[in-house]
Design brief:
The protein has 373 residues and is of the alpha/beta class. The protein has helices at 11-14, 18-26, 40-43, 57-68, 78-104, 117-125, 140-156, 224-236, 267-270, 283-291, 305-314, 328-340, 342-356, 361-372, and strands at residues 2-6, 30-36, 49-53, 108-112, 129-133, 166-169, 186-188, 212-216, 240-244, 259-262, 276-279, 296-298, 318-320. The protein has 2 domains: 2-191 and 358-372, Glycogen Phosphorylase B (Rossmann fold, 3-Layer(aba) Sandwich); 212-356, 3-Layer(aba) Sandwich (Rossmann fold), CATH 3.40.50. It has 14 helices and 13 strands. The strands form 2 sheets. A 7-stranded parallel sheet has the order 3-2-1-4-5-6-7, with helices on both faces. A 6-stranded parallel sheet has the order 10-9-8-11-12-13, sandwiched between helices. The protein is globular, with a radius of gyration of 20 Å. The N and C termini lie close together (7 Å). Residues 95-150 form the Erythromycin biosynthesis protein CIII-like N-terminal domain. It holds the Pfam family EryCIII-like_N.
Length: 373
Amino acid sequence: MRILFSGTGIHGHLLPMMPLARAFAARGHAVGFLTSSQATDLVKPEAFDLLATEMTIADAVADTLRATGIDMIDKPEPRGAAYIFAGSAVDLSAEPALAMAGDWRPDLLVHEISDHIGPVVAAALGTPAAMFAYGPRRPDEYTAAMDEVVASRYADRGLIRVPPLRYVDICPPSVNYPEWRPPAPRQLLRPEAYRQPWSQPQTVPAKGDRPRALVSFGTVFGRAEQLSPLVDALVERDLDVVVTLNADADRFDVDRTRVHLSRFVPLETLLVGVDVMVTHGGAGTTLAALAHGVPLVVLPQGADHPRQAERVVNADAGIALVGDEATPDAVAAAAIRVLTDPVIRAGAALVRDEIAAMPSPDDVARILETTWS
């Protein structure tokens, strides 16, 4: 079979799909990724076929601002998100995507939940499609806004929107919303921290006697001036700290004997020996930590982060600090509580065990290939 994955070029949207893509490839299927050229460095080293459009998310954000006057950087809202992913992204790249996918001839298309280019391609080619979700349910107002915006894009192309045949869900049930029902039959998939199939040099110092905190705000959030005081407060509480960087290391004014600053390294490597994670609450980062049984201090920064924070607290797997609550001292105190509170540590361990029991990528690849072969 020929399996085409489709997603925006955002790391947090693409990386959760990699384990399933690798599983399909290991089972002898041809695997491709339809995404933005900004994701070249993620897809090409994996040896998947890359079908890259020139549109970037920055282009879609700018186009949305021109079309609607909504600045999603300063004021995120459902209508703005809908125009970015279901409007501007489709307008800017659907035609080249259709041409490339038509030449590639997929037998199955797997698209992430915020991607609307893949479903347009599937409708045009008559290809069965599965939706891939990388976190707890999306609020109904976002789904409704996206459905409304994308409807005219189908009509303009003379296409009829086809609902997905499966909903591939990496969110463990205890972290999701129990009353919600997905738009297609749910297929659970075990989430994994991002890893690379090739050799990755060890870039994190061996753990010492102190507890280790991992501070990771993903690939979009996390300014040096925001994180430096927070890191100092953690060091003052006698923790060693690993920090993932979105800025030049020189901008961090921290004790380099106690703090390791890391460029983009697979999260699987960074999580080794970690006792607590301080994070923005991105879905992939959150589920990766929980897959290792690492409890969390979540400081939501925007996007879907508040949902992850809410569900982490609901599962007794961590603490959330919102807005002005998240002072450096408060964050450090929360980290110490997470390290010492038996209820929180037990909650994280329960989610870890739940994740371990979910179907593996190979299990899900086998189920999906049996369904459509």
